[in-house]
Amino acid sequence: GSLHITYRGGAGDGFGNAMQQLNAEPYRGKRITLTGWLRAKDVLQAPTAGVAMWMRIDGADGSMTLDNMGSRLLRGTTEWTSVAITLDVPSDAMGITLGVMLFGQSGEGWADDLELRDARPDETPTATVSSVRMPLEEIARARAMYGRAPSVLRNPSFGELRR
Asked: Residues 58, 94: contact at Cβ < 8 Å?
């Protein structure tokens, strides 16, 4: 199986997304890499369109680190393409949110064989800490949600995904 996201029409630059949230505890103080395989078909060739894998680290103070492959989106029609995101997990991180998205107004996207692992020594971070912070009123809610989240990636080959 694989994840398949299809644009079905509508107004505006929307997106389809499949995501998971993980408790950051086993990853704190580490550099981690999310790898996977993506494919695109008939995706608009525009700056606001593409198929992407993404990962965000939420810090205890509301700080966020994000890589949504903004400069590495798959557009047009592609074969299966290996992609990777590497981020540092602060020692006080509360959670990790990751997923796959299809941006824009056309096309289809696929994802398969996602893996979250410790980064190799030659893998450098693909993003930095964002200046955007989670609003204070959302931090407690996020901390509770991440506290209940699993600490391992579930169904990374999308074999049991149900809509």
From this structure: yes
